[in-house]
Amino acid sequence: MNGISDGVTVHEAHKLLKEKKISSVELTQHYLERIKKVEPKVKAFTTVTEELAMERARKADESIADGKAGLLTGVPLAIKDVICTKGVRTTCSSKMLENFIPPYDAMVMEKLNAAGAVMVGKVNMDEFAMGSSTENSAFFPTHNPWDLERVPGGSSGGSAVAVAAGEAVAALGSDTGGSIRQPAGFCSVVGFKPTYGRVSRYGLVAFASSLDQIGPLTQDVTDCALLMNVISGHDKRDSTSVPEPVPDYTKSLKPDLKGMRLGIPKEYYVEGMQSGVSDVMKAARKKLEELGAILEEVSLPHTPYALAVYYIIAPSEASANLARYDGVKYGYSYKGNTMWENMEKTRGNGFGAEVKRRIMLGTYALSAGYYDAWYLKAQKVRTLIRQEFDKVFEKYDALITPTSPTVPFKIGEKKDDPLAMYLSDVCTLPVNIAGVPGISIPAGFVDDLPVGMQIIGKHFSEETLLKVAYAYEQATEWHKKRAEV
Amino acid sequence: MKISREEVLHIAHLARVALTEEEITRMSEQLSELLEHFEVLQKVDTEGVTPTAQSVNLQSVMREDEVKPSLLPGDILANAPRREGDCFRVKPVLE
After folding, report:
1. For testing the chain B interface, which of A361, A375, A414, A423 should be mutated: the one with the most B CBs within 10 Å?
2. CATH 1.10.10.10 applies to domain A1-485
């Protein structure tokens, strides 16, 4: 059908729609059929919103006929199931919210809907965004389209797979410690975690409020810029959203890195990094130099403490945020004999193992007698990590690291070893701790398994990151390789 | 760093999470292992360092006090596990 059988990017879809070579109804039908075909293998979706999607596609076609087509009008997208969608169940891949239907839309959904985008469904994740493999979903694990026996990463595993397996043109995810970038790297797609405060968290189900940020997962850097143009911006309903003007991010898409100073933080090339990943990064650095960038080794000495800082702060915030699930207002509710029994069993039965582990860890770190030694200490080391980034960005435009120390691991390999699982986020966690932006882009393969390159910048340097990412992408072919499912 | 069974029960009580016997044992082992690893933090010199609670430099964010429609009670209560009229229904708190 009109050359879209292999799927299209957002900018390609827009062109086809605008030139009336295809209708949004046809495009949406193609993606719904593709979902039916590959879902039994990859299991990326928690809910497919077929009827709603067709209704929105018809509306989009009317706008296009009226000459009012925006860049996202009529384009089928997948949305991580942690983002509230009015009237469409939002589960957080948890038994706790299995039947929860939000009475309002998240800010990003208001923006996507206003732009005429077509949501084809909600996608799977680690329960409440806690995890690095999407195995912590209470419903089912999602499979990596590059190797169905391997994890897609997480927690936005469903978002990355929906894009990589051609089930949606692009997707939204959320990133608290790497949850957009790590699955993007594992599935060979582009994943962007914007600066903390760049995108409103209104309607994003809270995990760790000082770290959470929504961002796009796309097939290429151009699509990433297009989605950033739509979802960024200040929102009075999120008091941590920053009233900075939103530039046109597509203006950064210029393949020129002449004179750009890129730091290579040696602490990210950690012990335990696979040699294949190391080789891919070496080749990527060479390519960046060929493009005119100046690369130098730098040091961020507090990096090794980021894991501990993160796994104290994020669970502490989670333990407070998840106190709301009491079986009274919404969600799963145990029906016993007393109020306390109901609350304790609602939480005991409704949450999965990892969520309970983090609630316990956070409650411990915040409890009387331990607060100073754990939570306050972690917040102070957080300051040191932040200052280190500030300092290195006085001299460098961006930092280049691998997104993960390994290629995608096997399903089940790390499921019962929390520490091993936590270590797979070791390169992405510091970015959230400092609140700076980070992007993962396809950088190559090791034995047909994807490797992502992470580019980190200072606060609100989204344009610089897109520029580096675009230049590298245009000089390589990795983003054109598609997983065969 | 050892988190005892008693400590696990104390934290579970604070967090209001019912745990099974098996979960109590596993939680004791896993929390002990994790905290032992996180003890590296104690080695960092943080003398005189101010804690970071959030990473953007916004302070005391205020907004205009505007009158606008809020969600309707029926919309909010639509997800209630137990409701009575326009109220959430719960078991007695004080008996």
Report:
1. A361
2. no
Assess whether pLDDT exceeds 80 at residue A438: yes
Active site residue ranges of A? 80, 155, 179
Asked if pLDDT for residue B95 goes beyond 90, the answer is: no
Say if residue A1's pLDDT is above 50.
no
CB neighbours of residue B91 within 10 Å: 16
Amino acid letter at A387? Q
Handedness of CA A279, A282, A288, A292 (dihedral sign): negative
Give the pLDDT confidence of B23-64 residue by residue, as tens digits. 999 999 999 999 999 999 999 999 999 999 888 888 888 888
CB-based burial label for B32 (10 Å; 0-12, 13-18, 19+)? middle
Per-residue pLDDT tens over the stretch A414-427: 988 888 899 889 99
d(CA A268, CA A400): 9
The percentage of residues in chain A with a pLDDT greater than 70, rounded to a whole number, is 99
Bridge partners (DSSP) of residue A295 are A262
Strand partners, A218: A190
**Is B60 touching A (CB cutoff 8 A)?**
no
Amino acid in the structure at residue A433: I
Using the Cβ of B9 and the Cβ atoms of chain A, whether some distance falls under 8 Å is answered with no
CA dihedral (A108, A247, A471, A434) in degrees, to 10, reads: -70
Q: What is the mean pLDDT of residues A243-272?
A: 93
Torsion of CA A297, A302, A306, A312, to 10 degrees: -170
Dist CA A319 CA B38 (whole Å): 18
Look at B34 and A329 and tell me if their CB atoms are within 8 Å. Answer: no
Q: Going from the N-terminus, what domains does chain B have, and what CATH number goes with each?
A: 5-42 (1.10.20)
Give B-chain residues touching A242 at CB under 8 angstroms. Answer: 56, 58
Q: Do B55 and A210 touch (CB under 8 A)?
A: yes
Pairing of β A170-175 and β A118-123: unpaired
A85 Cβ neighbours under 8 A, 6+ residues apart:
A79, A102, A105, A106, A109, A119, A122
In chain B, residues with a C-beta closer than 8 Å to the C-beta of A349 are 18
The token pair at A38 is 């590959």
What one-letter code names the amino acid at A408? P
Residue A440, strand partner residues: A191, A454
Largest CA distance in chain B: 57
CB within 8 Å: B42 and A377: yes
Q: pLDDT tens digits for A5-37?
A: 778 999 999 999 999 999 999 999 999 999 999
> What CA–CA distance (Å, rounded) separates A9 from A225?
12
Supply angle C-alpha A128, B28, A305, rounded to 5.
Answer: 65
Inter-axis angle of helices A353-366 and B5-14, nearest 10: 90
- Give the Cα separation of A371 and A379 in Å (integer): 11
C-alpha separations of A4 from A34, A134, A169, B77 in Å: 11, 29, 11, 44
